[in-house]
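Let's practice the habit of predicting before peeking. Look at the sequence and jot down your guess about where helices and strands might fall. Then scroll down.
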Amino acid sequence: MRICDEDLSFACRHALAVHSLVPHLQLQLAVENGWVRVTGRVSWDYQRTAAMTALEQVRGVRGVTDAIEVENPTSATEIRDRIASAFKEIAELDAMGITIEARDGKVILGGAVHSQAEKEQACRAACANGVVIVEDHLTVIK
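Done guessing? Here is the structure:
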């Protein structure tokens, strides 16, 4: 049984409102034939990701179009420097083998790390303000 768009919109708004990481008042939804389009502005990429995850889990949602903007875009150089600084602060992370490329809110991590844990730490550290997406091209070597 298909849920009508009005009920689906209500369920989606509720899913965003109860999620502690989502600034739901900054987001707008449009629902058509089970497809949800979400727009608005958030301060951090983790807020955008949390909103998308919450919406994708609502029963009856056929798909979600992400049109959320992340505020405070930062220059690519500043993003790269912040990430490199964060890498240095993580004692377990050997950042010497990692390359960082940043442009248009996108960060590409390349090179080699010594464990899956290092790889995960590097990806988490790369989620700096102004980063919309992190592409992980890291290789784990043993």
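How did you do? Residues 76-89 form the longest helix (14 residues).
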